[in-house]
Amino acid sequence: MIWDVHSHLNAVDGRTPEEKMAGLLRYADRLGIERLCIFMGFPFLTDPKPEQLRQQNDQVLQGIGHHHDRAFGFVYCSGKYPETSVREIDRCVKNGPMVGVKLWVAHRCNGPELDPIIARATELQAPILQHTWFKVGGNLPGESTPSDLVELAKRHPDAKLICGHTGGDWPLGVRAIRASKSLATEISGSDPTTGMVEMAVRELGAERVLFGSDSGSRSFASQLAKVQDADVPDDVKKLILRDNLRRLLMPILQAKGIKA
After folding, report:
1. CA–CA distance from 62 to each of 50, 66, 85, 133, 211 (Å)?
2. pLDDT digit string (tens) for 44-72?
3. What is the pTM of this model?
């Protein structure tokens, strides 16, 4: 049984959120993926306005509406609009079915503007997945690095922060977050290069590594290969493929009465 912490409706065939969700689950079923965490609607917007954040969260709510036994929603927030984002957390998490928070590239996550968002998510026991990347040619304006996330984690030691993509350039990403014991990482988005999972397990500990696919931008199969072909014991693979994410989500799932 596999739980995927990083999936999207974008780049999946279908005209509506329901059609896209059904397609995504068909592919997941082929590979034994039991649960998907879904966030961000379509099209992808690097700097969404408040009304666009709400619209994209509505698309996710619509997509997961008939699949609560298979899909967990994460609310899309932006450090540019902290008040709107906190309201969206209340609407979609506190008073809705979502169980986590997603932050992308509109605003670097080390800024104090993020503090109300992280604080509200932490109050609700919701994990926060922050996109991170180290890019050779320079990051997008507002795009965070793992080092930025380390700064945020220092201000919010009780937050359940997840380093998205392990920073893309994963050897640098692993080293950047290594000393921040409260940070978990997820392995989605980059090519299935030999040694990624082994290094993450060796340097961070198996309990801090989560499986993510970045579907539909990436295939489930290519991202699963990182774990299934890794030179680590089977019990470590089980932690990465399900148990670590399940443990992170369990407090909020129990609070909402969701069985998992």
Report:
1. 18, 8, 19, 29, 25
2. 999 999 999 999 999 999 999 999 999 99
3. 0.98
